[in-house]
Amino acid sequence: MLDWTDKHCRFFHRLLTQKTRLYTEMVTTGALLHGDQGRHLDFDAVEHPLALQLGGSEPADLAACAKLAERWGYDEVNLNCGCPSERVQRGAFGACLMAEPGLVADGVKAMRDAVSIPVTVKHRIGIDKIESYDFVRDFVGQIAHAGCEVFIVHARNAWLQGLSPKENREIPPLRYELVHQLKRDFPTLTIVLNGGIKTDDEIAEQLRHVDGVMVGRQAYHEPWQMVDWDRRFFAAANPAQSREQVESAWLAYLERHVALGAYHHWTQAMRHALGLWNGQAGSRRWRQIWSDHQYKSLAPREVAALATQARQGIAAHVAEHQAQTLAQRNMPEGEPAAGHA
Predict the structure, then answer these.
(1) pTM of the entire structure?
(2) Does residue 339 lie in a domain region?
(3) Is residue 310 part of a domain?
(4) Are residues 125 and 23 in the same domain?
């Protein structure tokens, strides 16, 4: 998820779930080998377990970047063979690599020879109009022969021509049955399903057929959904009991980084947490305060006070209105109802 799951986003998500494996945004091999490695690779220790997702196709470059991932302390290195964007296609990696399983196998082998951490692959079930199960089965079989044991499968085709990345997440139909078949045909491999999963019950249903489920944009836009995952799927205690508790810990994180001058402004990190109060009374006003540029010169805790005041004020008004409505429903017929003048 380019430009989304940066280190600030991942720290926020770790306040909600400690057991779920987190993935970085895709980083190209060129950016790591020729750019600012620290900017791309640095992370907070609380983010473990954490995987670095790579975009690239040259085996030697992938091996060099896998070594960087291991040196930095990542728990896994993942090769993206599923992104359909034009920018990725111009670099000859992402989903277009599914047409070159031999090259992917060479890259996987080079990485496995270079590091001891797991090397995994994320891919689609097909590309363009290729909808045969044989295509994805043979792709997985050839990459598995190179030593890959974990496959994260987005259960849609990637249309490399004619669809935007957004449309590629919506228009090609979801075909979960193909991912289920992969698990039946490769029982010793770890098969993780991705694509279109929205509820915890849907996650639980898919776990009857595969080894894991990856949730992307749903988790980003509705982060509070993650708060029960540790208990439900890992038999572990939830890391947080309330949204207030998470917001307080997140504010401490923002203030710590502002004090260190670690990034130019707290708004770049705060954008990842704007869904914290979704579904609660006053959440829209809370988001508006945090997103208002007139407050960006204030310290995070000052903005938080304004946002909380706005949220609680609306919540109190809604509760009062609901109480009045309930009282009116229970009022004996003919008796006047109390209310605002």
Answers:
(1) 0.89
(2) no
(3) yes
(4) yes
For residues 223 and 250, membership in a common domain is answered with no
Residue 14, domain CATH: 3.20.20.70
Q: How many domains would you assign to the chain?
A: 2
The 10s digit of each residue's pLDDT in 135-169 is 999 999 999 999 999 999 999 999 887 778 788 87
Domain match, 87 and 214 both: yes
Closest to 158 in 3D by CA, of 180, 139, 181: 139
* Domain residue limits at 277: 243-330
**Joined tokens for residue 69:** 């991932």
Tokens of 208: 């009857």
The answer to whether residue 83 is catalytic is yes
Tell me: the pLDDT tens digits for 46-104? 999 999 999 999 999 999 999 999 999 999 999 999 987 766 655 567 889 999 999 99
Catalytic residue among 9, 65, 81, 83: 83
